[in-house]
Structures are given as C-alpha cells and as structure tokens.
Please model this.
Amino acid sequence: MALCRAAERAGRACAALLPRSCGSSGAYSTAPALSSRAGQQREASLRRRGRTSQVVRPHLAPRTEKMAVDQDWSSVYPTAAVFKPASVPLPIRMGYPVKRGVPPPKEGNLELMKIPNFLHLTPPAIKKHCAALRDFCTEWPSALDSDEKCEQHFPIEIETVDYVSAGTSIRNPKARVVTLRVKLSNLNLDEHARKKLVKLVGERYCADTDVLTITTDRCPLRRQNYDYSIHLLTVLYHESWKTEMWESEKSEEDMEEYVWENSCSQRNALATLLRIKASENLSAVTEEELLASEVVKNYRNSVIALKNEGETESNVSQYKESVKKLLNIQAVP
Amino acid sequence: MAAGWLWRRLCQQSVFPGNYASTILQKQCSLLNCALMGTRLAGSHVDTQEPKTNPLVSVSDEPETLYKRLSLLVKGHDKAVLDSYEYFAVLAAKELGISIEKVHKPPKTIERLTLLKSVHIYKKHRVQYEMRTHYMCLELKYLTSSTARVYLEYVQRNLPEGVAMEVKKTKIEKIPEHIKEPVWDTLPQVEETEIKS
Model:
C-alpha cells in the first residue's frame, strides 16, 4: 500500500520535473530517494545534458584567420615542423578523392602530415639564412678562372666521396676511397722515365688524355688512403728515373712505338739499294750516304707513320709514293 | 701568382656545436634581430662608419684547400620532394655566390621483387613490390673549403627525411716537394751492391 502511494507520488514528481514548474517541491526534493529506476535514468540523462550545455565552449578560431597577408612567414615556420592545418592559411586538399567528390581537406589530413614540407624554406627565409651565412664564406681566387689555369698551378686532383643518409649509423665504408689523378706532362720526367712509368702502372694510365689515375681503398681511413696514394706516386716517380741493369735487354717486342733505326725494314731497304747500285756498277756508296739521302728518309717516315698510326688512306698512298721513288719505278700506265 | 698566395680559412667559433638545431636557430635569430635593428636604427641618426664585423667569424692563417668541383647526388623516393629540394639548393648556391655548372636529373631506377602472397603453399599467387629511386645531380664549380663547408652544412641540415645524398669533392693540389726532382741526383754516390739473383 505504502509502495503504491510512493509510486504515485513518484509519478507525479516525474510529471512535475517536465517543463511545467512543479508545485509539490517537497515531493521533488525527496524524489531521488523514492523514485523508480526509469525515473532515475531519465533524471541522470537530463543532468548530463544539462551539464554539457553549461560546459560547451565555442571552438577557438584557427590562427589562420588572424594572419595578416604581409606577415613574416619565417616566424610561423622557423624550423622544419609537421604540417599544422590551423597555421597554414592555404586551402590545400590532398589524398585520394572520395567517390564523385574532391580530395579530402587539410584538417586532420594524414597525407599532408606524412610528406616532408618545405614551409620553413621559403625563398625569403633562404635569403635570410644565406645573408647570415655569407660572412663565413671565402672568395675563390680570381686568377684561377679556367680549368687550364687550375691544372697549370695545381696539377694533382684528389677525389673523395661523402655519404649522408638516414640510418642507425652515420658511417659508410665506401667513404674511405681516395682517387688521385695527375697528368704526366706536369711531372718532371724524361723520355725513359715516362715510358718506364707507363709500363709500371699499366691499366691506370689513359694514353688519350695522358692522365694517371690511382685509386686507393686498402686502408681503413680516408687520410691513410690519401697518404698511401701520395706515397705510391712518389715511389713510381723515383723508380721510373732509375735505370736497372736488365733494362738494356729491352727487345723489339717491348717497344711502345715503332723505331726504324736498327729494324729489319731499314736493313732490307739498305741491302736492296746497295745491290741495285752494285748491279748498275756505279761508284760505291756507303750506308751513311744512303741513309742521308732524301728517298730513304721519305721511305723511313712513311713506314713509321704506317706502323704507329695504323693504315689510313693518306698513310698508304704516302708509302706507295716513297717506294716508287726509292726503287725508281715509273708510274704504271 | 696564385701559388704565392696564402689563403686564410675562416673558422666558425662554436656556431655548429653539439646541440645543433637550437644554436643555429639562436644564431639566425640573433643575426636577424641585428639586421632588423640595423634597419630600424638607420632611419634614426646612428653613424655607420665601420662595417660591423661578425663576432662569430674568426680568421686563421691556414691555407685554404680548393675544390675544383663539388658534385651533389640526391636520392629519394618522391619526385616532388626532390624538386623542392633542388629549388632550395640552387637558390642557396646563388645567394652564397657559388657558380653552378649543371643541374640534371638522371633517370629513376626501379627495384622490383616478387614474393609469395601466402605464408604456406599457393605458389601460383604472388605479390609484387617495387622501390623507385629518383635522382637529382647538382654540380658546383670552384669552391674554397670554407665556402664548401658552409654550403654543405646548410644544405645537409635541411635535407628532408627519406632523402639521401652523396657528395663527390674534387680537390686540387700542387705537386709535393719530394716529386719535383728525382732523389737519386741528390743522394751521395754509394757503392752499388751486387744484385743477388
């Protein structure tokens, strides 16, 4: 009985809680203790809604709306930073577009946050940085304005490589390689020393450009490799000036270029000419006179050109002319 | 003429020590403030008789090494990032007065791999991945060692994440003293020892 009456009162109290002002305030104040579970839940939800309606503040306007058009952008992004949509006053959209729509906007856009941005390196910012850094730079000497002058005064070129990459370690084993390049015409070498040096280095010398290239990487540090390459150059230079006893045994196969003196071509030509002169029974001529004569000299030059430079139209025709003059053959009709 | 000159190297006093980002920022900020102050004060009556010497710059008497060529090869997976970086590097070189020889983009390389799609069996179903590497090569001419250090440090600090760089430096040097003349001429005459076969 009492419970039913309590329920009735609770029902009236709940009805009173609705927008109409409740007359039975006493019943209202004690209602929580006596109200039913449904009533309790409704009351709690209303209290929650009431609390949020009191607590909700309007969102702050993003910083972009307060930015002036001529502001100093390098103070907004002084260093490399993530893309902040509220700080960048640009209407950027990025990403795969939704169906029949446009790419997503910049707010909460992961694609824009992932990609490295260059907002801290705008042209005015770069100019400011460079103006500050210019004090630490030095001028290149104006006398060395061409490659030829550089080579004339500084003949040796040292090439080294540095590597920059992201990773667990800043070291790169390829960084210790040192390449030394020098033109042999800049070194103080005579003919014998030059030929010996070329023979000693073998593949490292390029005959077309006259450049000797020494690449060292056998030491663990770059400085050591550089010292080793200079040491190699020194040793090669001094060894090439030395003349060993066995170098006198150099034969015709070892020669770098064709030499006509004391070759079988010279012997054959002289023998043929001597026999011609002997058969014609003219005054005996000596070998020196034959060697000094014009026809033999022509023949010598043409043979040397043929052997050293290879067979070209002009070389072969020159050889033909010299042979005809040597043997006094008239032109074939 | 150039041989007789002694090149002085500019040292940077505690500009790029351990805590890099904050100190470079401070230095830039302090210099920016000085620059701004200078412009503001120029309007008012301040005498600018002597040029302001930068207190951070110190000059040493060591001769500078000369770099005939500096070749930067920048590698990355994203072409747009490399394009922005190229603009930055070229502008920085121009502002610092470095002559640019060539800027070119070698063709990209694509490394592909084919893997099995499933953990166990299903050999006929595979999945293919590829890694694209884009390149950008910047060749600079005629730099001194101070300028090269300044430029490289600036450009390398602002290297974006995911981008790698290789720097090829070609240094030019004189022929060392010991290669000028063969040493055999200067050595005293020594008895030649028998060559043992």
Residues 184 and 193 of chain B are 16 Å apart (CA to CA).
